[in-house]
Write a structure and sequence with these properties.
- This protein is an all-alpha fold.
- It has 10 helices and no strands.
- Helix 2 packs across helix 4, helix 3 packs parallel to helix 5 and helix 5 crosses helix 10.
- It starts with 5 loop residues before the first helix and ends with a helix.
- About 35% of the residues are buried.
């Protein structure tokens, strides 16, 4: 009986992993549309009130700095919350996507710098690396630069991946190039939410 070469076995494993990520991404987009539809249908007036206050007080700069914090400090507010505020607040599509994508990439770059320069310098930082190495490092080892692209596009946490590749000293130019795919992610999720918001109205 012919044995499958280890390399071929590894390729099958990678293909399965990528398929799972693709399915998770599609499911998450469908869920976003469904959740926004339900929110728009049952809580439209409340959302309009909150979003109008946010838009009046903070506007596009609020979206920008919100994304910087969200993607540099993952315990903050998830990025989709700001997308929801932008959609329900009726902000312009192009400037919203520009400000949020730029803020996200800047936030990821800050997370990269924290991973590269701060985390290794502290005991808790080294403990963090050990805790998350098993979860994120395999992506970096398997896919290299493409691990950043995957994190930028899929449910893999982008900010945690930024910490990881910073800690393991991926070239910043590669990280930054991979992070540009956040623009695609923001665009897809923005219009998914917009579709849900319009449908729920």
């Amino acid at each position: 009986m012919t044995q499958i070469p280890p390399k071929h076995d590894s390729e099958i494993s990678q293909n399965k992993e990528l398929t799972v990520l693709l399915v998770q991404t599609v499911v998450s987009i469908i869920l976003v549309i469904g959740v926004v539809f339900l929110l728009a249908y049952f809580f439209r007036s409340e959302l309009l009130t909150y979003s109008s206050v946010f838009v009046k007080e903070f506007g596009y700069l609020g979206l920008f700095f919100g994304m910087v914090l969200s993607d540099s400090l993952p315990a903050f507010i998830p990025p989709d919350a700001f997308l929801m505020l932008a959609v329900s607040g009726g902000l312009g599509h192009f400037i919203t996507l520009l400000s949020m994508s730029t803020g996200s990439i800047l936030g990821g770059s800050i997370a990269y710098a924290i991973g590269r320069f701060l985390i290794p310098s502290f005991h808790l930082g080294r403990k963090f690396v050990l805790n998350y190495e098993e979860k994120f490092l395999p992506y970096v080892r398997r896919y290299g630069f493409w691990a950043v692209v995957l994190a930028a596009l899929t449910p893999i946490p982008y900010s945690w991946m930024a910490y990881t590749v910073g800690t393991f000293k991926m070239r910043f130019s590669l990280f930054l190039f991979g992070s540009l795919f956040r623009i695609v992610r923001m665009t897809v999720y923005f219009y998914a939410m917009y579709a849900g918001w319009i449908s729920g109205g």
